[in-house]
Design brief:
Layout (H helix, E strand, L loop, with lengths): L1 E4 L11 E3 L8 E3 L1 H7 L11 H11 L3 E5 L11 H21 L4 H28 L3 H16 L6 H11 L1
Parallel strand pairs: 1-3
Antiparallel strand pairs: 1-4, 2-4
C-alpha cells in the first residue's frame, strides 16, 4: 500500500516507508478528508493517470507521499481487463497524453505524434500477425492498437472514448 498524509519521515523510521513522487491507484491508502480536499480523482484522465495526478496535486498542496516496502499486493493480471482492453487502453493512453502534455499545446502535440507513431507501428504489426495467425487474442490486440491510433488526436475525453469503444465490443 502507498500512504498519503502530512507527517514527517521520522514517524516512519521504524518501518520500511520511504517518500516517493507518485503512487499507484491499484493499492493506496488516503484519509477521506484529504481525498475530499483534493477533489477525489480527476475525471479528465479516467483510467490513467488519475492516480499520478492525485499524488502530484497532493504534493503541490504540501502533503507527503509514501510507499510501504513491507506491504505487498497480489494482482490478477489480464483477467477482466483483457476483455475490455479495446476500450480501456485508448482511454488510458489519451488520459496519459493529457496529463503529461498538460503544460502546453506544443508538448501535448509532440507527445501525441510520438505515441501515434509507436501505436501505428504496433497496429501494423498486429494486423500482419492477425492475418498470419488468426485468433481471438490477435484480433483483440489489433483492435486495441487500432482504437488507440484512432483516439490520439480525437477531441473526445478518455471517458467518452471508453464508452464509445465499449459499445463496439
Amino acid at each position: 500500500d502507498d500512504t498519503l498524509g502530512r507527517t514527517s519521515d521520522a514517524e516512519f523510521a521504524k518501518r520500511r516507508l520511504f517518500s516517493t513522487s507518485n503512487i499507484t491507484g491499484a493499492a493506496f491508502m488516503i484519509r477521506t478528508a484529504v481525498f475530499r480536499e483534493l477533489g477525489w480523482f480527476d475525471e479528465r484522465y479516467f483510467f490513467t493517470p488519475e492516480d499520478i495526478a492525485l499524488s502530484t496535486l497532493a504534493r503541490e498542496k504540501g502533503y507527503l507521499v509514501y510507499v510501504d516496502a513491507d506491504t505487498s499486493l497480489i494482482h490478477k493480471w489480464k483477467t477482466t481487463a483483457s476483455r475490455l482492453a479495446p476500450a480501456v487502453r485508448p482511454a488510458a493512453v489519451k488520459g496519459s497524453l493529457l496529463f503529461f502534455g498538460r503544460k502546453s499545446r506544443a508538448s501535448l502535440f509532440m507527445l501525441s505524434i510520438g505515441v501515434w507513431l509507436a501505436e501505428s507501428a504496433k497496429r501494423s504489426k498486429s494486423y500482419i500477425l492477425m492475418k498470419l495467425r488468426p485468433s481471438t487474442e490477435n484480433r483483440t490486440k489489433h483492435l486495441v492498437f487500432k482504437n488507440i491510433s484512432n483516439s490520439i488526436f480525437s477531441n473526445k475525453s478518455p471517458k467518452e472514448l471508453f464508452l464509445y469503444f465499449k459499445e463496439e465490443l
